[in-house]
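Researcher: I'm preparing a figure for a lab meeting and need a structural model of a single chain. I don't have an experimental structure, so a prediction will have to do for now. The sequence is pasted below. Please return the structure as C-alpha cells so I can convert it later.
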Amino acid sequence: MRQLRIALFVEGSISPPQSRGDPALNRIWNEVLGSELNLHPFCSIVPISKKHLVAMDPRNPPMSGSQEPLDYLMARKLEIARRLKQDPFDVAVVAWDLVPAWNPEGPYCRWTETVDLYRFLAVSQVLPDIWKNQARRRLQELEGRHQPSARMSLPPLKQGMVLAVCMEPMFEALLVQDEGAVKRALQVSETPRGWPRQGWGDCRERHPDRRILMPAIAAIQSIKPRLRCVKHIRGDMRTKKDEWGEYILRRLFGDPKARASVLQHPLPARLVELLSRSEDR
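Model: Understood. Here is the structure written out cell by cell.
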C-alpha cells in the first residue's frame, strides 16, 4: 500500500534556500515540528495567507492585494503535478492564523472559519469531485453537532481529505509561552534594553509576533558583541519572520525545560491528532 502524500498549505512566506539547503517553512514544519512529533514529512509546503481563505467567500468584496481563492490554488497545484507527470498530493492540511495582520482587532471565530472552509470547498468550481465530496462529508459532520465540542472520533485519512488547523491567534503563540525559555533560546543572559515586559504566556495576547517577538529580536540585535543568532539570521521579524520562528522553535525543542510546554500547546497536539492516524491506502 502506498503512503498517502500530504501537502501543507500554511501561513508563511516564500524564502530563498539558506545555507542548510531548505526554505524556512520546510525547516519549521518538516525538520523541526514534523521530526519532533514523529510525523511523515509533508510532500509539499505551499505558503498561503488568510486572504486565500477569505477570497473563497463570494460575499466578501475584493481586498487590496488579495490572493487567488484557496480552492483555485489547490486545483492549480494538482494540475501542475499532473502535467509534470508527478504524483499529486492525496491529502491537504490547511493551517492559517485566526488573527490576520491586516485587522488584528477584528472579531474572529475558529469554529465559524473552519465550517466556512469546508462549505466553500464543497461547492468549488475547480476542485476535482473527490475533494468536494470529502469536504461535503466533513461539513455535514460539523453542522450535525449540537455544539462544537461534541465531536466524533476522526476517521482514517483518505484521498481528497482537507484537514483544518486554525492557529489561535497565530503560529507565534507557540513560541512565546515562556519568557525565560525564549531568552535561553536566543542565548540572552541579561534583559537588554527594549525587551518586551508583558505578554509572555498570556493566551489573551492577540499579537505575539508584533508585540512580543518583534521588539525582542530588535532588542537583541543591539547587543554588542553581536549574538551568534543575530549573525546567522541577517534580518528582523519583518524580513526574516519564518527564519526567526524556526530558530526559536528548534532551540525550544532542544531545551528540556521548554520542550514539554511546546509539545502540550494546541498546535502540535492538533497535528498529532490529525496525522498520526493510518496514512496508507
